[in-house]
Structures are given as C-alpha cells and as structure tokens.
Give the backbone structure.
Amino acid sequence: MSQFLLEIFSEEIPARFQKRASEDLAKMVKDGLEKAGVTVGEITNFVAPRRLGLCIENLPNETPDVKEEKKGPKVGAPQPAIDGFIRAAGISSIDEAKVVSDPKKGDFYVVEIIKKGAKTTDIIKELVPSIVRNFPWQKSMRWGEGTLRWVRPLHSILCMFNGEIVDFEIDGIKSGNVTRGHRFHAPEDFTVTDFADYQAKTRAAHVLIDREERKQSIMAQAQKLCADNGLELIEDIGLLEEVCGLVDEPFVILGQMDEAFLDLPPEVIRLTLRINQKYFVVNSKATGKLAPYFIVVSNVNATDGGKAIAHGNARVLAARLNDARYFWDLDRKTTLEARVPKLDTIVFHQKIGSIGDKVKRVVELAGELAPIVGADVELAKRAALLCKADLVTEMVGEFPELQGVMGRYYAKNDQETADVANAIAEHYKPVGPSDYAPTNPVSIAVALADKFDSLVSFFAIGEKPTGSGDPYALRRAALGIIRIILENKVRMPLTSQVNEELQSFFLDRLKVFLKDEGLEYDVIDAVFAGADDDIYRITQKVKTLSEFLKTEEGKTLLEGYKRASNILKAEEKKGALDGTFVASAQYLELNAEKALFSAIDTTKAALATSLENEDYVGAMKTFTLLRDPIFDFLDNVLVNDSDENKRKNRLALLCDLRQMMSQVADFECIRG
Amino acid sequence: MENVEYSTACSRAYAQGRKPSFQDIILTLSDYWARQGCVILQPYDTEVGAGTLHPATTLRALGEKPWKAAYVQPSRRPKDARYGENPNRLGHYYQYQVILKPNPPNLQELYLNSLYEIGIDPKLHDIRFVEDDWENPTVGAWGLGWEVWCDGMEVSQFTYFQQVGGFDCKPVSGELTYGLERLTMYVQGVENVYDIDFNGNGVTYGDVFHENEVEQSKFNFEYSKVEILEQWFKDAETQCNILLEAKLPLPAFDWALKASHLFNLMDARGVVSPTERQSFIARVRDLAKGSAAAWMEKQEELKAGEK
C-alpha cells in the first residue's frame, strides 16, 4: 500500500475559485482511479493561493487481474462469425472456448479473458495529465507560447507515488518532487519525500496549505487584536472565505482611521472597508457603534512588525473615505427632487422604458394604494417620486449597494419628512428572507407600488420567470408583496391590481410561501380551491383550518364530512342525485334527520355572520355544532328510503352540508 | 535598495535622503525595463483612454513576432475630470505600460523587482495579486490577470492577453500597467495628487497640471459642442473606413482612436442616451476590430514577402 501526493503549482488562483477547484480535483482523481480499478480511501485535499493538491494514503501498488467473459456466436453459427470471434477473443481455435447453454438462446461460445492489472503509478501517469487538460475552471487562459489552459500560468507539478516521482510531461512541464514556499518569505525551491515531509516543509516555508487552518488563524488573531483593544469584531463569513484565499500565511493587523470619518454614514464606511479594501469592520465594545479601526489580513510577516502595512492601508482607506466624503458633500448640494428628470435618461428595460417612466407609474400607483394601506396620499406620492433619485448620485454610482440607504440620508438633508425618507430606503424591502418587510404605511404604499409595477411591466412584455431563471427577480418581488400584505394585514383583492395570469403567479408564490411556513399542502389546496383572491384572507383561512383540523372536533368533523360526501359521490356516479331538490321540513321523519336539518339551519346563519366578519375561528366553532348531528344522522338514518321524497330530502340535507362547508374550503382535498 | 548595484534615478534619490520624484519613478521604470530588453517608446501622439490603446500594445499583441516595449502614455478620460478639486481623480493622467510577447515565465518576478527598484520592499509591504479580469469591448480585447495591491492600494494591472480585436493572441503577451500618480503618491506619502513632487527640485504635479485639469474640465463638461463632436465622430469613422479599404491598418487605427476619444467627450457631456451609447461603442469596436484584422492580414503579407 502506498501514498499518492499531488501538487499543481501556479500563479495566484482567484480566491473565489479555490475551494471549488480543490473539491473538483479530489473528485476527478477519485473518479479516475476508481474507474481504472483502484480502490480509493480517504482523500486529503488542500488549496492555497498558488497551489492545488491532494494526498491519498494506502493505495494499492497495482490493480488486480480482472476475469472477463466474452460472449461469442451460437454453436453452429456460420464460419465467418466463428472466425471473427476467434480473432477478437485472441484464441487460436474455437476449441479453447467454453460452450454455455441458455434456455432461451440455446448453446453459444464463451471465452474467459484475463485482463491484466495495471501498476497504479502507470494509471496516475495517464490520469493526472488528462485531469490538468480537462479541469473545469470557470475561466481559464493560455500563456507564453503554449496551448495548455489553466486558471493562471501553471509552473510545476509535484506528483509522487510511494515516494517516487511519477514521470510525465504536459506541454513542457515535467512532473517532479520540487515545490516552493511563500512568495516573499521562502522563494527557494525545495524537494519533498512524502506528504508528512511536504506538510512540514511548506509550513516551515510559511504556507498553511489547509484553508480551514488559515481561516481559524485569521479569526483567532483578529479576536485577540479586538480583545486587546476594547473592540468587537463584526464577523463576516463571506469576507473570511475570500481573504483566506488571498494569503499563504495570514498576519492580521489592526489599522486605525481618522475619527473624523465617523461622521460619514456608517453604511458607507462599512462598505468601503469590506468591499473595496477587504477589511473586517470593528465596533467599539463600550458604545456598540462603529469604531475608528479596521482589521486587515496581510500575507507578509513584515520586518517592522506590520507598522508600514498598517500605515499604508490607513492611507489608502483615508483616500477612499475622502473620495466618499467628496461624493457625500457634492451629492448634498443637489436635492433629490432636482435629480428626478435625469432618471428619464436611464433605461430600466429596453421594452419597458426609462426609470423616469417607471417612477411616474409608481407615483400614480402609490397614490392609489395609499388609502388602502392607511398612508397619506400626498406623502406616498412624494416618496414614490423621490424613491429612485439617489440612483443618479455620485455615492450610489460608486456603491450601487447603497441605493435607498443614501436616498434616505439625502431626503433627510433635503428636509423631507421622516415618512418620505424612510419610504425611500424601505421601498426595496424585503430584499430577501432574512430582511424585514416595511411596516410604515408610506413605505408600504411605495414598496407595493414599485413591486407591482415591475411585475405588471415585465409580464406585459413576456419576461416571465422560467424554471431555470428569474433574471428580474420577479419571484422575489411577488414574495415581497405577499410578506408586506401578510405582515401588515393589508386587505386588497389581487384582481384590483393584476390580470389573471399574474394572479395565478401570485397564488403559486403564496402556496410556496405557506408550505415553507410549515402548513400542510392538502389544507392549502383545500382553501385555494375557493375563488378567493385576497392574500391575507386566504392565509387566515389556511392557518385557522390547519389548526382546527388538529383538534379532536376537527378530526371527527372531517370524518363525518367524508362519510357524507362518499354517499353523495356514490349517488352522483349513478347519476341519481337531483341537484334541484331543496330539503324541506315536511319530509323529515326520524329524529336524527330532524336534528341535522335544524343544525344546518342554525349553522347556516351563524356561518354567514362569521364569514361576513372574516371570523374563521368562529366559523370553525359553528362547524363543531354540526358534528354530533352528522354522526347521529349517518349512524341512524338510511338514506336510500323507498319513499322517493324522503330519499331525495335526505340527500339534499347532505348536499346542504357539503355546500355550506365548501364556503370555507374544499374538504375533498384534505387527507382523512 | 543597497542590493541594487547600479544607480537609478530612484536609488540616487534615496541616497540623497529624499523620496523619489514622479520623474525619478518614470526614469527608473524605463531604465529597468530597458535592462529587460524592452524598446523604450515615447507616448503615442493621439488621445487615448488607456496605455493599452497605444498601437505598440493593441496591434503588436497580435501576430507571432516577439515584441517587448515599455512607455509612458498620457491617458484622457474626460468623464473622470473633476475641475482639479478631487485629490484622487483626474481627467488626464499617466500610465506606465509594459508589454512582453511572449510573456516570460517569470513575469511576476520581473514585475516585483521593478517595484523593488522604485523602493517598495515586499518584506515590509503587503503585496498581493487580486483577481481582476481585464476587458476592453471597444477593441474586442480581453485577458486574465490581477490587480496588484500594495498595502491595500491597487498599484498596477497585470494581464495575460487572450484576445485582441477578436483574434486569439498567439503567443500570449503579458501586459503591465502602472498607475504612475497613485504609485508615486504611495511612495512619496502624499494624500493629494497635486502635492506630488514632480522633479525633486521644487515643482509639484499641481504646478504642472492643475490648471490643465480645471480648464479641460470646463471644456469636457461645459464648452464642448456636441454637434461638432458628432460631426467629427462621423468624419473619423468615414476616414477610418477609407483607410481600411486601402489596407492601411496603422493610420486606420489612429482614426479609430480618434473616434473613440470623440465618443468619450460626448459621453462626458452626458448627452448620450443608453441606446445611443451601445451603438457608438459598437461603431468604435467595428473600426478597431477592422484595424486589427487589417493589421493581421498585413503581418501575413509581410511574412510571405520575407520568404
């Protein structure tokens, strides 16, 4: 049993590709070896900015011989077929073949062929070059005069099996046992003998090959710097994933910025730190607010302990923040209102028109929606007018992520009301499942108007989400509307806003949303069977019904309903149900049917009142009044009486029951 | 710097106990790349938005002939002009451009040595290669590479050209672009571009260029006449097409560059609607691609003639 060690050394691999590439390499090696008959155990794969590699222990030195049965022609087949088989099977005469009997096909020839096993090192020799040539990089390139492609120029391949170099050459690159360490701290070549030696030497050469170790080291150093300085690290997993791919060995440094910058909007500072500079953000432990410090992960253990690096980064940051301040000061010289006409020059979508056009529509719609959501019409229209104006500010041009957020700052600066300013920031919300839905009426009006407008506009030009793609995030827009409606109890028939196609799109999104909330799909289907188009009401019905069906009363009522419905279905099948017959007191005979008749009568009135008031809990309560009479009826009354009128009357009673309950939901959909 | 045996403008500055000036850095880079066998060219004499557009890079990146060149290229980006008020943004600035075809295998090391000669010690500063793929749709060019960061500041672009004018680059060229003002600000430790010590003898960058930024900004944003720019754009396009017809790629490319600059001026004026914008870019791309194609054809002809 032997060890296989592979390292592909190149110029700096983009950080975002590293993790995936490491996994791909492990999978390709495993699949390749297994396909060649080599049993593969655990793989240790690793990746650092300039290298991609893996080690597999305990590989067999060769693959075993494999016996294969080669089927030939039937006994007595024409001679050319037999000759062909002799050649293909590599035997000298047909006498060397066995004869096998098959009950269906009769007797035919079979030859046992022994496929010799291969040396694992020969398998690797074939496999690695083919992996390098076919590696699934998202983007790859050529370099120099060669034709090979890799993510960046590939410099060397260390490939060893059982301590020996596995010899091959790809496009002039010869495999070997040589690698290098950190670009600046240990640039010299060195040789390795096995994985333990490789790990020890790379570590000594300032390369931590394990991503997780680099991440932990970054976090530990950052936490310590924070603890020592009364700071609190804002954890940032995305940034950590990125910076661990930018360093061979992390050295974490605390930098300081001028406190005067803290009067900039904190969102601007945080974005500048994270996105532009890849720094971690820190809060002051004492105040819980942004502190005038930052954390930078450096790749160098600097000779001065990192002073020059901290100083240099602070200067770069200062330049960036000065830039931001320049934008901030400049932007505040022009009001948002004065910027609105410029939106006419920005295309929203080729076929839909400019953002200016969109704003005009959103103003109208927000004005219409305002009374429905309890917002002041003029404020809603004002907020809608200004909601996109920050798109043409310098700051949002620089940081598109700050759309809305900057609008709020600038609106406040323009002395707009707090409602208007907040609505500008909140009209994009909720932007995802973890984001909140606006609750201020003005914000609600603009948020709904903006989203409805997008949905209606894109559907009108046929740009609808498909199974594979939703480039305009229309599902998210619909879900946003649903959440705003539900969380704020907005009452609005969908038909008032959208056409039939969009209505069914909404109802589909609502179904998905309710399922995600943990509601049973049969209950959802039962409620959706009704022709309701009020998202809030539908949801209330689903929730109440779901609760009700979990109670004892609910369960037995459902059982009663199913029994009654089965009787009706059997009659319907026979075509023997007279839908026009109205139940009448005059045909009532038995106590049980009289009781059901009067229970339906009282329930009908009570249910109508409950439904009128949208009191679904009340509706369910009235249903419970029906439970005993139903069972009494089903247990004691024979529906198929010889008297035609009595029979029709009893069926009509059950029809009444079914019809009444269907006002809430189609109980047929619910599993018993 | 003690390890550098020969003297450069930068090493002499450090020896005198001062930081290198703007021109010291330019001279040192030219000196360094001359030692690597580059042809040291002078700036191209037509307005360009980036050093890449110098025909010594755009056109010479095409074809099989080896080529090494380095030069300073004044770059004009009318939209970035800020009336001389922004400490970091300019409508006119300098790039130092190096092209090596084919790229030598140790191009990263060569580049890092050039930083060392300017005075950036990689054991004292944090130098990082951060993914940044380069694309210039108007000349149908793209490549993969990095931005090079020094202590968090982008000091250079490092690109392996894959395509120019829609043609595969075979062999591949390595292209380096140094942002000279930024690099100098970093080395000198100044916060405002206009405070850069230009010559080590009392002249600042502001003395040389501030008034130019102010006046050019006024031109770019207030006094450029759109009708004239539009007409000139059309004329440049026509002229370029005549030259392409005549199979004269070098002058044709000049007129493609002029069209590109005229478009940039119109764009700065804010009068180009997004749809028009696309159409202008496509027109410039056609001219640039046409020039590249004509250049490739010419290379083949010249090669055939040599045989």
User: Anything to note?
Assistant: Chain A has five domains: 2-62+119-204, 66-115, 211-331, 344-545, 551-669. The first strand of chain A starts at residue 2 and ends at 10.
